[in-house]
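User:
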Amino acid sequence: MTLANQLTLFRIVLIPLLVIVFYLPFAWSYPVAAMIFTIAAITDWLDGYVARRYNQSTPFGAFLDPVADKLMVAVALVLLVGAHANAWLAIPALVIVGREIVISALREWMAELGKRASVAVSYVGKVKTTFQMLAIIALLSVSPDSHADWLILGYVMLYIAALLTLWSMVIYLRAAWPELMAETTVSPSE
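Assistant: Predicted structure:
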């Protein structure tokens, strides 16, 4: 078990802790939930750095890292949508989670065709992830009933992340479009 894989597993272990802390009936639960998510976001960057720097890339890590990322973001967004209970947060959350489902399915399908590199992570995707993580941290850090600047900043960054999410999805779909539109014969069993 490499250090990079341990960091990824640690991020998954933080998910139930995030949920428990978020629902605690104390004023400090919001900033502590934001801190837990921040630690998870840092381990997301750190496990990739460690894997590349120390040549610790493994098939298990390549599988688990994106799963951990998507679980952490999806759980945080579900918590926030439930707490904020408004369309202003639900719409960008839906865009972000929906895109992750579409792109994950696209990557899996392209991998079956041996063309996984066509839908590799792009620069826009990395910028999107940065805005997404910062937005979630800002939104987790304060009560949804507050009028804190962090809340406004969180909403703005989440909308920027949602726009970048759509942009990156278009990039991925364009790269895969020739394969998606290729005419092939389908066997009767399909």
